[in-house]
Design goal:
With 252 residues, the protein is of the alpha/beta class. It is 35% helix and 15% strand. Strand 3, helix 3 and strand 4 form a beta-alpha-beta unit. Helix 1 packs across helix 2 and helix 5 packs across helix 6. The longest helix has 23 residues. The C terminus is likely disordered. This is 1-acyl-sn-glycerol-3-phosphate acyltransferase.
Length: 252
Amino acid sequence: MGESAKSRITFTILASVVRPAMNLMMGRRWEGMENLPKGRGFIACANHVTEIDPLVVGHFFYSQGILPRYLAKASLFKVPVLGPALRATKQVPVTRGGAGAAASLAGAQSVIDADGALIVYPEGTLTRDPDLWPMKGRTGAARLALQTGAPVLPVAQWGAQDVLPRYGKMLHLFPRKRVRVLVGPPVDLSDLRGVPLTKSVLDEATERIMAELTDLVASLRGEKAPAERWDPAAKGQKSVGRGYDGESEKTK
């Protein structure tokens, strides 16, 4: 997937608006850039604690000279203004099942083949963990990694939730907050490549990704992560959407 003039121009326009706003809202500390592959496409698996995470992670990658591509719900491509922007910057629509799933894989593969960065949230939604730790992951990121052959880099971020709380509606700009991003070495999936993608293989790959990601988040937080990751299904919670925890998850 070569970069078109339209794609670069659109990224430049968006960055001219988003980057100054991000710099105004929060300070930043970026670490682990030495782990970014040189001249090779990769999958970046990030933790998800607030709805502005994509801006934080996108800001980080753009500032490293890497144009960020996300897996985005296909429905977002139909939203006025947002949809054209997503298409212009060659984001990857996700459609479940049949031809749609094949098209999503092809889009992801094109990012990898062009030595790009495909950003995936392996939890599939904002974490349900009450303390915002990475929760149990879904197997989509692992499947993509094993199907495309791309290396997987865990990307931990922390601090954006102080600007916009999880599912919040109001920005908390004062005092000025700081966000940190930490990139870890590629997750070792070498023994799982080239074998049938059974449930046990996908579960094992997902567990390795989430374990590395959780360790990085613990490092940023300076805390010990829970011994067991939060599992929404085991807690009787909805897998996606707001209001998954009744009155305890009102927006702030």
